Amino acid sequence: MLPNDQDPIVAIATAAGQGGIGVVRASLGAAGPGAAEALLRAVCGSVPAPRHAAYVPFLDAAGAAIDRGIALYFPAPHSYTGEQVVEWQGHGGPIVMQLLLQRCLEAGRDIGLRLAEPGEFTRRAFLNDKLDLAQAEAVADLIEASTEAAARSAGRSLEGAFSAAIHALVEDVVTLRMLVEATLDFPEEEIDFLEAADARGKLARIRAALTGIQGEARQGALLRDGLSVVLAGLPNVGKSSLLNALAGAELAIVTPIAGTTRDKVQQTIQIEGIPLNIVDTAGLRETEDEVERIGIARSWDEIGRADVVLHLLDARVGMTAEDELIAGRFPGRVPVVRVLNKVDLVVSDAPDDAGAVTTPAASGSGGEEGSPAMPSRNGENARADAPVVREVRLSAKRGDGIATLRTALLAVTGARAGGQSVYLARERHLIALRAAAEHLEIAAAHADSRAQSLDLFAEELRLAQERLNSITGEFTSDDLLGVIFSRFCIGK
Ligand code: GDP
Ligand code: ZN
Q1: Residue numbering of the annotated binding site for (6S)-5-formyl-5,6,7,8-tetrahydrofolate
Q2: Which of 191, 289, 322, 474 is found 20 to 30 A from 216 (Cα to Cα)?
Q3: pTM of the prediction?
Q4: Complex ipTM, two decimals?
């Protein structure tokens, strides 16, 4: 059921539980002028001056004070939602907040005040043109950011940096479309048109700009969603030890996954601001044991979803025949780092080789240093350009070589360090950008073909523009809005 976007709504805007301050917020939808004043008069006994903090009592129906705090009144349209908005800041205890919320609902019964759905305030802000869709999404991403870099990037998107880049691109597409469509009315001049107007050059510049935005957005999506790094290998090679070593070397552990502890299955760490979700798995081997088999099947599921696989080996024995079989089953799109663990146990003439990184010649395609493959989400990369196989020698037990592994991980994912100068982007945005790029590519092909078809050229430009517009929400379905805003927290 879609929320009725005209209803007056109210919610506790601060996190559940105890806090120094708690905030109840109401946005009054299509309630007539004077509704906010009436509500304030009922709950506080007076109406504060617009946008001025007033220290007032919060009164129950009998006129007794529930609490005392700050009331703020934002007349439409100068508010977060663009509607009449009232905020009460009281003491942040759950009971006080509930009493205040109940009191507001009661006082607003005659205007149909109801509890807000998740994200409904921001949905209003979008519908009332206070924010575009990419900015509205950035609100949620800022709240949910798991690292500082992600938060800073979400802030940039919220300020409109991403939207501005998209708008500039759309404007160039529109200009080119106008040129083309003007020419369509004079068919005899079609042939000369592309030359005269430098349509090809203009298109090439648009495509280059789009490629740049895609790069930034991909980096932003990385900051938002992080990468899944799966530890795989035979039993006892040191997977769990490596998980602990990676997590232990981490000073600021971000979002510990609920219900997991140090030596459970996953840990989120960050390397240069990129959140990496490190997943431990059951050792891969042939077994008759039913329970172990289930664990191994689960391991392969994790590997199938991985952005990077760490293939652990015992440095004393190296790649065994079983390891070859395992490596052969890794999905082709996923970059693999081969980790030779337990170097401390290797009896060697060169004992100091922990941390060495090599790119084994046997690794096949795409292994050159300096050209790391981007992690391929959704398997979009062809096998040919995906896996970057590297080798790192380390000791999970002693910690030698862990720093090198962290650097190798960053390199192999193609992630840029300290990436807060990008916009935070979502998978939805990447898909739209990719679709727009494809339409522009087809448009270019039409322009280059001998039988230049201006009709088809114009149509592809139109489709590209449509996809770009969907990012900022110029054309969106109710379904999409429902999906996006339902994932917000209540009160935002
Ligand atoms: P897993 O089955 O792959 O998860 O392996 P574990 O992490 O449980 O380790 C298996 C055994 O190898 C344990 O006894 C670890 O202490 C030991 N081990 C793991 N890494 C190292 C290492 O770098 N050096 C040494 N000497 N022992 C290690
Ligand atoms: Zn283990």
Answers
A1: 25, 87, 130, 492
A2: 474
A3: 0.73
A4: 0.98
